[in-house]
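Key result, reporting period 2: structure in, sequence out.
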């Protein structure tokens, strides 16, 4: 599976480079079009855990200034001193760094969340002037307030939607520094599960020509029109941030997966300044290779826009040719073939990393699900990352894409629109879900709200049905099921038949079911210790066993399929327990992605094209168990199974595809073996053996190398072995790791919902024989390796060398060393009499002193003028500082708190550099310029305190 997705990745990269090639060639003759457009902003952030109080606004002057654009105070202001803050690289989830705390919210995994601040500075080239500039934040948990250059530019009211911020009007260029400040309120909760805290998805700086395709501005989703004919009703939305109306030629082309041009369409529109406009281009094509879950073929759509024959913007999107249908009698069809949805619901977090999950760990999780036989994934209960959807497209996993906030008022409609616009080209997306389990589902109000939300979706995409995951209200006279295309059942399996009977023309799917409880690797329940066995006997009051849940679906053709709660365990919601349990018991896999019994159970039920046979439990029972009956289960899709203990046949059973097969076997140490047969031929075996004590450690990876791109992350399995090299299933040794070479440990886990060991650091205990350490590469430009040592008391250590391949790092917006910018300046009236540089400005004077800024020159109309800046806060923990006034033009004297600190005699622009002792006492800087009327004076660069 991995090989396949790696190959696909390489092909995709190759395809994109190939498709972009003509643009680079063209760009040699046109302006700037070859310049990269997308820069990661992930590096170089300053972070402060906890809130930073804003200064109290008091007094006339401050109140006046506070009410003005671009004058943010405190940590939101460019002139804030953040040099003591931690420097980090995004994505970041500070909740996963916190200790477990019994007083924190159980739902959020007993992690304190609170507030946090992030700041980052960047520069723009002077040639960027005139371009359209956008900041993108793909996900911040949970509420975010964003300032750029002291201007409040955005408030994001959802931890799962992206923010796209046009910074063109207030960006600074050349020597000037841009400052982003973000206050994150992670006390805000949108879920009853672990949501993490902080900027946990990618951040980008986008540079486009003034006439450009807007973000998520290409809609190119193939629709079938005849037996073999298809059309792509393309829609391209462009924007003009420039000054003049422009005539724009648009072109959309379809390419095969192997990059053969199939067809091209054109259109032409005028676009006025500061307007957005959509243009349509239809591409027709016949007999495409279809996208399916087994062969997820992807085509490429290249969109370019031109002005005067010069390309000004281009975008490559992927699409898939496939049809979907939900039928009220016979369920779901992909490409006209019936296919039961074998789905799981999941939250987005993983062991060790919280919600800041690297893409390669997302890929690892999807691979594990595919291996289990999953073909559908419900993003519970929020939109996923865009990288997640790209992976589902490539791997052939169908997605129920779910909106977070159920609300039809404008801000929430905006969130829903964003989701559909961003995700509507992905062939993997087959359902839009507008809500999960809403109390208003059985009411007129709920119905009216869903009608409107469904309408919002359909204005943007009519090719997928709208659903809502209902856990009640289905039989109320007015209810939400009347406003959706496919009714989602959360649990309520008792009502499948009645609802179908009463609503025979309504399509149904289970949107959530089962909610079974299991502790991975445990086969004895101990409720006092919060341990639940793996025999599929325990589930939530509202759920079913894994086996019954699937039988109910599999035997009802009118139900499209299921979405089991849940594919993986997740932090938080540790039902049926509370403290000290801190993560869930629902997963078919644990928090690390280690399979539980339920994983093999569904694998046996869902995989049809190869034999599956798995035997539980382990065979390491204590001496006093000898002779006592142990429950043995075989999870298999073969016809019949024979069971042997120490070579002796214990019996043969025909496999029951729903219930599976159970034996009660008097325990004897040794080897228990299951042999599977089809048509009287042996086609599969599995065995469990009694091992000796652990004597050594082993670590292994599911991939042979890691990419040295600074992003690739590798989950590494850690276990203990006996003298014969066999995995010891009940080992709990504490392992310490040392990593050398260009990589770092970013998280650790072991799948124990009751563990309070930190998820960061360099050590972890095995839980029922397993632990996971996740490493992430640093950037390297030649092939090398990293070495991971695993050491445990009394065990033979293990050393693993992992090749690191030279990587192609992302393009990053350069990190500039963090400086305190002195950017709030006032300019005195100009006078021919030498003014007192330390004069007090009257509190109520808003007019005789004018706000001014650095980065420009002013013409003198008299002999003298003072530039004045006051530090809002003393510098923290600083004795000495360095004040730098870059490119000061004109004769000038610099006064610090009334004392002359520097004298510049030349008129020519020059840097002024002043060493300040006792810098923490500095309150006020005044620059007295002197010249004659007509002279140009001012500070052309920045003023910085370092
Ligand atoms: C459902 C809910 C899920 C999860 C699950 C646990 O009602 O939609 O988010 O809480 O219960 O059984």
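The corresponding designed sequence is given below.
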């Amino acid at each position: 599976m991995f090989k396949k997705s790696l190959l696909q990745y390489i092909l995709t990269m190759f395809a994109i480079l190939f498709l972009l090639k003509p643009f680079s060639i063209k760009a040699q003759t046109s302006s700037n079009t070859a310049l990269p457009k997308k820069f990661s902003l992930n590096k170089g952030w300053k972070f402060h855990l906890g809130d930073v109080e804003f200064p109290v606004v008091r007094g006339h002057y401050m109140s006046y200034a506070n009410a003005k654009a671009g004058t943010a105070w405190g940590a939101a202001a460019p002139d804030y001193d953040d040099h003591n803050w931690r420097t980090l690289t995004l994505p970041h989830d500070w909740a996963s760094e916190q200790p477990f705390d019994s007083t924190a919210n159980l739902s959020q995994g007993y992690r304190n969340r609170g507030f946090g601040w992030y700041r980052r500075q960047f520069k723009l080239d002077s040639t960027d002037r005139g371009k359209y500039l956008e900041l993108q934040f793909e996900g911040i948990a949970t509420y975010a307030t964003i300032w750029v250059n002291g201007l409040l530019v955005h408030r994001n009211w959802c931890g799962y939607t992206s923010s796209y911020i046009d910074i063109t009007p207030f960006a600074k260029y050349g020597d000037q520094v841009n400052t982003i400040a973000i206050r994150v309120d992670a006390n805000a909760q949108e879920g009853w599960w672990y949501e993490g805290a902080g900027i946990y998805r990618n951040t980008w700086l986008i540079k486009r020509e003034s006439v450009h395709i807007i973000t998520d501005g290409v809609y190119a989703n193939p629709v079938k029109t005849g037996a073999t004919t298809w059309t792509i009703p393309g829609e391209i939305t462009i924007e003009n941030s420039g000054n003049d109306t422009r005539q724009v030629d648009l072109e959309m082309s379809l390419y095969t997966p192997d990059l053969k041009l199939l067809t091209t369409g054109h259109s032409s529109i005028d676009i006025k300044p500061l307007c957005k406009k959509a243009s349509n281009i239809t591409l027709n094509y016949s007999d495409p290779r279809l996208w399916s879950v087994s062969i997820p073929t992807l085509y490429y759509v290249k969109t370019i826009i031109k002005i005067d024959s010069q390309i000004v913007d281009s975008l490559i999107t992927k699409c898939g040719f496939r049809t979907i249908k939900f039928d009220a009698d016979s369920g779901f069809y992909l490409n006209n073939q019936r296919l039961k949805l074998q789905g799981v619901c999941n939250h987005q977090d993983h062991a060790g990393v919280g919600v800041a999950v690297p893409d390669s760990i997302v890929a690892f999780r999807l691979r594990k699900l595919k291996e289990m036989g999953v073909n559908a994934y419900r993003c519970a209960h929020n939109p996923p990352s865009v990288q997640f959807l790209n992976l589902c497209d490539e791997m052939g996993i169908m997605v129920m894409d779910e909106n977070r906030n159920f609300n039809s008022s404008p801000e929430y409609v905006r969130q829903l629109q964003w989701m559909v616009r961003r995700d509507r080209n992905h062939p993997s997306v087959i359902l839009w879900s507008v809500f999960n389990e809403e109390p208003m589902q059985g009411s007129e109000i709920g119905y009216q709200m869903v009608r409107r939300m469904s309408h919002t979706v359909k204005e943007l995409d009519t090719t997928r049905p709208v659903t809502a995951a209902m856990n009640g209200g289905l039989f109320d006279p007015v209810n939400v099921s009347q406003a959706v295309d496919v009714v989602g059942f959360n649990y309520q399996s008792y009502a499948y038949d009645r609802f179908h009977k009463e609503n025979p023309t309504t399509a149904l799917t289970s949107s959530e079911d089962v909610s079974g409880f299991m502790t991975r690797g445990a086969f004895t329940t101990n409720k006092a210790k919060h341990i639940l066995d793996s025999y599929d006997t325990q589930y939530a009051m509202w759920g079913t066993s894994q086996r019954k849940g699937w039988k109910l679906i599999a035997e009802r053709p009118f139900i499209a399929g299921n979405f089991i709660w849940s594919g993986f365990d997740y932090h938080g919601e540790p039902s049926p327990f509370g403290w000290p349990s801190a993560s869930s018991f629902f997963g078919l896999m644990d928090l690390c992605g280690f399979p539980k019994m339920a994983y093999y159970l569904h694998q046996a039920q869902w995989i049809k094209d190869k034999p599956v046979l798995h035997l539980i439990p382990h065979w390491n029972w204590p001496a006093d168990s000898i002779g006592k009956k142990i429950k043995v289960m075989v999870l298999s899709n073969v016809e019949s199974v024979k069971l042997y203990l120490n070579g002796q046949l214990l019996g043969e059973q025909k496999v029951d595809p729903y219930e599976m097969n159970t034996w009660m076997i008097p325990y004897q140490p040794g080897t228990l073996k299951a042999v599977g047969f089809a048509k009287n031929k042996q086609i599969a075996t599995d065995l469990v053996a009694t091992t000796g004590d652990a004597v050594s450690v082993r670590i292994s990876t599911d991939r042979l190398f890691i990419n040295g791109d600074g992003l690739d992350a590798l989950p590494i399995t850690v276990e203990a072995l006996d003298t014969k090299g066999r995995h010891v299933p009940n080992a709990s040794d504490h392992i310490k790791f040392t990593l050398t070479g260009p990589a770092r440990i970013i998280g650790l886990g072991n799948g124990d919902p009751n563990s309070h060991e930190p998820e960061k650091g360099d050590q972890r205990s095995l839980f029922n024989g397993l632990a996971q350490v996740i490493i992430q590469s640093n950037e390297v430009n030649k092939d090398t390796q990293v070495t991971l040592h695993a050491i445990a008391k009394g065990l033979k250590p293990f050393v693993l060398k992992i090749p690191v391949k030279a990587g192609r790092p992302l393009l990053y917006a350069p990190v500039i060393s963090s400086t305190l910018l002195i950017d709030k300046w006032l300019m005195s009236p100009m006078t021919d009499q030498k003014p007192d540089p330390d004069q007090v400005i009257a509190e109520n004077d808003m007019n005789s002193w004018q706000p001014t800024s650095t980065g420009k020159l002013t013409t003198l109309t008299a002999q003298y003028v003072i530039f004045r800046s006051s530090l809002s806060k003393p510098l923290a923990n600083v004795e000495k500082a360095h004040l730098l006034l870059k490119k000061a033009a004109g004769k000038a004297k610099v006064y610090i708190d009334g004392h002359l600190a520097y004298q510049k005699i030349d008129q020519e622009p020059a840097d002024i550099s002043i060493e300040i002792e006792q810098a923490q006492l500095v309150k006020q800087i005044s620059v007295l310029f002197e010249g004659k009327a007509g002279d140009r004076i001012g500070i052309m660069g920045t003023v910085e305190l370092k």
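Residues 1-7, 20-34 have pLDDT under 50 and may be disordered. The longest strand covers residues 229-240. This case is discussed further under Risks and Mitigation.
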